[in-house]
Records
---
Amino acid sequence: MSATDESPMLKLTGVNKAFGPKKVLNGVDLSVPRGQSLVVIGGSGTGKSVMLKCILGLLRADSGSITVDGAEVVGTRGRALDEIRAKFGMLFQGAALFDSLRVWENVAFGLIQGRGTKRADAHEIAIDKLTKVGLSPDVGNLYPAELSGGMQKRVGLARAIATDPEIIFFDEPTTGLDPIMADVINHLIVERVKELGATALSITHDMGSVRKIADRVAMIHGGKILWEGPVAELENSGNPYVEQFIHGRSEGPIRVDMGRK
Ligand SMILES: Nc1ncnc2c1ncn2[C@@H]1O[C@H](COP(=O)(O)OP(=O)(O)OP(=O)(O)O)[C@@H](O)[C@H]1O
């Protein structure tokens, strides 16, 4: 391992990304210590998903540095990128399950495809992970379309932890869930991440999720991280952008696009 235990698991330095003339990320600096859970908040269209895609290597940052456990993602391709990605687990917005695969096959996908785990062994692991997210083994034989949204999120979480990843990314993990189910999912996220000792990076607008799953919070606005601190300091950040955002006020320094032409 190239990195030491004190070095951050994930570090972004001066990350820029533009689409044509539109600058979306404008020097993002962010660091997630090992074993910590950092949640990035920010309004719609502020670049949270673009930042996540740059980390995952799904989009290429124009410049800057993104290191995962000391390994540089920016400019890395092919097998070297796959090796970095093998450390990742990911819970996508809307769970993003494969409709044509049974639930257990969805959970086992990364094990069978990515790690070459034997089907029978992968099945056993998948059933164990399903139990860990509160689903009974018989759910493993169903298809995603037969499940409620909350159950699909659980399956997505089981898939995210299937390979016992060192880093887990959560993209709007509670979108589309009622507040009680959202709380259940947040609780499961905390439990499973802690059990793995994993480092977590999440993006969300759900303040309930932030308060439940974050050790630290960072706010992105104007393509930059404009505040970062422990979740306990969120209420007293002294930053007018953060205050406006967390209290959901239309008045403040964040200009709300009302969709007028
Ligand atoms: N592939 C792309 N090509 C061009 N523009 C893009 C592309 N992907 C994202 N953008 C633009 O980048 C900006 C940031 O988008 P992004 O999806 O990262 O926002 P977000 O903060 O995740 O928003 P939300 O919370 O609504 O999901 C938007 O203006 C979007 O239109």
---
Amino acid sequence: MTSVYIDVAVPVPLRQTFTYTHDSPLPAGVRVSVPFGNRKLIGVVVGMLTEVADTSRLKAVAAVLDEQPVLDATQLSLSRWLWQYYHHAPGEVMHTVLPVKLRKGDSATPAPQTWYRVTATGAATAADTLSRAPRQAACLQMLQAEPASQASIKAQFSMAVIKALSERALIEAYEAAAPVNDNAWLSQFKVGEKPRPDSQQAVAIAAIHQQAGKFAPFLLEGVTGSGKTEVYLQAIEDVLAAGQQVLILVPEIGLTPQTVARFTRRFGIEVAVLHSQITDAARLQVWHQARHGEIGIVIGTRSAIFTPLKRPGMIIVDEEHDESFKQQDGLRYHARDLAVMRASTEHIPLVLGSATPSLETLNNALSQRYQHLQLTQRAAGAVATMQHLLDVRDQPMRFGLAEGTLTLMRQHLSQGNQVLVFVNRRGYAPALLCHHCGHTETCRRCERPYTVHCAQQRLQCHHCGATRPMPTRCEQCASTELVTAGIGTEQLEQGLAQLFPASAQVRIDSDSIRGKDKLQTILDDINKQAFQLLIGTQILSKGHHFPHVTLVVVVDCDGALFSGDYRAPEKLAQLVTQLAGRAGRASKPGEMWLQTHNPQHPLLQDLVNNGYAHFARHALLERKMAQLPPFCAQVIIRAEAMEGDVAWRFLTDSQQRLAHQHVTLIGPMPSLIEKRQGRFRFMLVLQSSRRKVLHEHLRLSLPVITALPDAAKVRWSVDVDPTDFS
Ligand SMILES: Nc1ncnc2c1ncn2[C@@H]1O[C@H](COP(=O)(O)OP(=O)(O)OP(=O)(O)O)[C@@H](O)[C@H]1O
Ligand SMILES: [Zn+2]
């Protein structure tokens, strides 16, 4: 028997595929169990090889797990793009693309279900002879018409009814696969009430319609509250009516039941939801349904981009600037960029929407690679939030707030409105110091001050999560005079309770919203005006609709002005603009005040006076002059180790191997967070105005770097198009 050579992506951290023999050809996308070292691993067939140089050491495929490929052509081609573009191990890419249960080897055909049908006696029994048991009679009648799954019977009848009929041998159970209900959702599809689009919305909707069935990327740049979601809704209407499916990506925290409800209400169909809290079983079910065309709309966070669609019609990425779309470990892909690749592979339109587009996307729109759609007015008559700087130099401060700010808060509260106070730190205070000797309590593994958490009476390191009880004495001089420095959400909450005892307040940060549906309950209560003062972190900035908020206060915006991260101004501008967007969304106009020690700072001036759109275009010019992304391609090689000099040496050696006339090498240098969890962290930045040249050079150099003597002693990784320099 002649054997064939199979190319398999095996889940090991090596940048290559592996060859195995098998007695017959296997299609790409089928899972196989293969021997690897002394283990058996589940890999995915990615192709066949006709010639292999050395066949003597090849092993055979141990078992074939699927009859049909579990990955379709689109997913296979995106996987290949992912491992090539991100220079990542193919087997690990495959495992990111597959649902967890399939990675582990579960069957890819849905588990059979229990069904019931009538027996011969059951068929011959007139239901009204059971008149003393009307529920049984009704159930029998239903099954006489057609068999039904246990799940669907239980929606109407109790298990006792089923049991009674079975015992009388009128019905019987059997196992069968769930039938594929391809496009069944279309029978429920019905467009609900919708507003008339304003002229800008109408232009956007028409432009998207025109490109149906073609690859066409759009940037929908619409100020906060301008009705972007309404554009999505009306743009996908025809797509769904034609029986095609829509995939919508949203930021992790933006995926609220309200968002989902808006789509369900409009179209009357079930919407599949995917996010990090979904169980593996539920995730697999959505994967099956989407793949077989049983579901019309899938809304999900980053990894939902891997959901297979039988009849793809459109992809939407809402808040496309959001950082949660970039994975920051393992396969460091950007879901927005993958969405572009996917839409191009599937020949469908892609809508990237944001009030604060990333500079990358904005540049693509301004250079006409993407069609640029703009919504410059708020919908339904709401007016833009006015933004102002509040100079706090020399001002007495109470709990981080200047007297001027407190006066404004009093005014808004007395008019029955809500006030949102933003502070970028959770916990009570970002540091605990000794008033006697000046010593700061520091996490030894990260060399960063501990954050004080009063509620739990503990110190917590926000870099590694380590916690310890609150000390009563300074560990250096034993003085008991320990004081906190700086302000966090907890402290602000306590302070505001003193200053505004008549106003109910709520704190929203990752500590206070822990637990299922907690955030949702809080958001609902806010809109029922159960609270007047909203205190919180970034979470508050993400897409929420707060009709009663008229004042937004930013406690401190100076930190980001002097950051070592060239993306910090962009991030600050996005945050401030999104926060401002929470106010004045309904009939009441809103205002925003930013407390600062740098009221003349050009960035703040530009943002406050001219808005994000102007700021972003100016920031793009600056990036162009400095030859920074998106005007160059960047890759970071990071290395970390317990012994700093080993990581340093590894990157220095790498740097020598990476020399190239068209690639600029910066570093090695310490990462912005130099030490975390006891490891010293460094990075080497590669930059080039020629993306292709950079990638090809990296592809050829990585085997050399992998073979360096220190490579096995450090943790190192490749980050393509990095967004985070910490
Ligand atoms: N054409 C319209 N006529 C009347 N009301 C509209 C229209 N378009 C949108 N709205 C309403 O205006 C509000 C804001 O719209 P929407 O949520 O779609 O904006 P958005 O741009 O997605 O908001 P954000 O990005 O700030 O979250 C919603 O309450 C929506 O129902
Ligand atoms: Zn730490």
